[in-house]
Design brief:
This protein has about 425 residues and is of the alpha+beta class. It has a domain of about 290 residues: Cytochrome P450 (Cytochrome p450), CATH 1.10.630. About 50% of the residues lie in helices and about 10% in strands. The longest helix has about 30 residues. It binds protoporphyrin IX containing FE (HEM).
Amino acid sequence: MNSASNALRGPSQPLDITFNHDALSQLIAAFAQFGDAFCISESVTNAPIYVFSHPDCVRHVLVDNHQNYTKGIGIERVGILLGKGIMVSEGELWRRQRRMIQPAFHRDVIARMLGHITAANQQLLDTWIACASDNREICITQDMSDVTLSIVLRSIFGEDSQAMTEANGSNPFALLTEETERNLTFAYKFRALSKVILDCVMRRRADTHERTDLLAMLMAARDRKSGEPMPDKQLLDEVMTLIVAGHETTASALNWMWYLLSQNSEVEQKLVAEISAFAEIPSTIEEVNALKYTRQVVEETLRLYPPGWLLTRRSINADRIGGYDIAANADVFISPYLVHRNPSFWPEPEQFNPDRFSETARAGRNRFCYLPFALGPRACIGESFAMIEMIMHVATLARHIRLRYVPKYPLELECQVNLRSKHGIYMLPELRQ
Ligand code: HEM
């Protein structure tokens, strides 16, 4: 890292961070030229944005001095979609909500969701087996979006998820997989689903049937100080947050994982050997944890393609990061994508190599160079849930099916809030013998 200086250099072309533009390519080019600390001006306001990709700076901004940072550029847009849910809120409101929601992601609660995860994967497996026998290709991007939406809805609403679909004539949340744009039109359509969620909450209040899903946990949560439940508006924002945060991130990671497996047959064989060594697909958290190499495959996928590719922050007071002075109210970016491919910490960073996550390799590495779920107090609340979900998914499907890549469209990144593939990725399923 550079020594102390206030003149942080950077590219002359400003950065358009409206998420309609390929900001990632620009940041990658700037990283190649200026390294792990550079400054770029924002295209509309011309204000400086400081981009740090050294693990010491990651640690400083997200952990050691996290109280000096709020969420930054783009958070207003997320707020239109998610209101004041915990992805967006700050200060005392965020702290209170995080405390109230955290128990819903306790290991014992996740254990209750495993049946939902298995059911959704099993349904997809049946479809893939049928496609394999008919030699029909699948769009893995669409299938991952569908299966992860199904899992998150079942986990939140339990059996009401099916009831809502029946009452509505179709899945009211289907727009999350049917519409790929994440613009204002989408945000308004999505917010209109508040009514569906609120109706479900009202129905539950009117009956005494005991439930164990995430919505039940949120409805039962009480503020530690006041003993009060969440106000309805807040409950709605939190449910919407969990749907969006839990769906698209996992879908995108699994989309990339299947692509990477299709391109790396040695890794795929090792993965299948591990999965097949067990008589059954995993049905407990202990069984999921026994799939060590499978976990490494998921971790390496998240290194190369972190769905949350950009963490935007804004300083409250002036600060000094990596030897550089940063003013109050300055925009600071930490991009997991850049950090995960920093060659000073990741040899041959472009290579897909799950052995990087073996216990020995992990022990020798600075732990602040890996942050697919962010780090510090604002880290992902759903990390354990997501990891278990993704490991169970691949363990269920890859046991029976091999996917062969069908190069239909160019493989391009689309870096909006999540790092998705710009076009659908197609595969031909084959039954394993
Ligand atoms: C591969 C899957 C996932 C990835 C890569 C991921 C990544 C992230 C990242 C990077 C953040 C921090 C954003 C920031 O600081 O700006 C975050 C926050 C969050 N994630 Fe996840 N996430 C995943 C799955 C999930 C799931 C399954 C859920 C819930 C069902 C979830 C719920 C949340 C919530 C509520 C927050 C906000 C936490 C807070 O600010 O207190 N995520 N996630």
